[in-house]
Amino acid sequence: MSCPSEIHSLLQEIFVDGSAYGQFATVDPNHLPSVRTVHFIAGPNLASIVINTHIQSEKWANIASGQSHVSGCYWSQEKRIQFRFSAKAELIQPKQVEMQPHRLSLWNNMRAEVRTAYILADHNIPLYRANPNVDPVPHSPSHGLIVCRPYCWDIFYEDPKEYRFGKRHIYTLDTNQSWQKKDVSSLHEKDILLYDSKS
User: Fold this and answer.
1) Cβ pair 88, 72 in contact under 8 A
2) Cβ distance 47 to 2 under 8 Å?
């Protein structure tokens, strides 16, 4: 499975060539929502969105509890395009040996300051200690991955002249694993009159 072919190059530009920090929402066992800003990283063939996380984080716990349906949103200020997705999430545990090369690659691409925070916590060293003498290179055993496999992409193209002229396309994965596209308005997902009838 891959992403919708019509938006492949666009997703490539945003989530592979660029650096996309957006909002990621989960639901806890009591069905209460929670949202935070994360770094979205494209998986192979753009079939997934991957998120680095600490295995003691709230988002990890929410998904581990069985609430595996998640959603994400990213706004490209440069392109004036909003990217939304709904997905089924899978946790990649540190103990999963077969995924170790992938985890290590994403760990090494993480900012050194973030890796330092992981290492300090692993060794029970105060995070606020000035000039801690730690090496951020060794892979933290607390580093996990959340792999999100979208079954819906919702792309909104803002019109710079007027909001109501914006274009919105929703791509949904059907039971045959094929992407179906629906064009909707900027207001809602229901049918709405967009154009004057031609006489």
Assistant:
1) no
2) yes
Nearest CA to 63 among 51, 75, 73, 74?
Answer: 51
Compute CA distances 15 → 19, 30, 33, 157, 160, whole Å.
6, 32, 25, 17, 23
Cα–Cα distance, 135 to 155 (Å, whole number):
41
Q: Is residue 52 within 8 Å of 37, Cβ to Cβ?
A: no
The verdict on pTM exceeding 0.85 is yes
Cα–Cα distance for residue pair 108/125, rounded to 1 Å: 21
Q: What CATH number does residue 12 fall under?
A: 2.30.110.10
**Residue 16 is assigned to a structural domain of this protein:** yes
132 within domain boundaries:
no
> What tokens were used for 131?
């000039």
Number of domains in the chain: 1
Residue-by-residue pLDDT tens, the chain, 199 positions: 789 999 999 999 999 998 999 999 999 999 999 999 999 999 988 999 999 999 999 999 999 999 999 999 999 999 999 999 999 999 999 888 888 999 999 999 999 999 999 999 999 999 999 988 899 889 999 999 999 999 999 999 999 999 999 999 999 999 999 999 999 988 888 887 888 877 5
Token pair for residue 49?
């969105």
Has residue 194 been placed in a domain? no
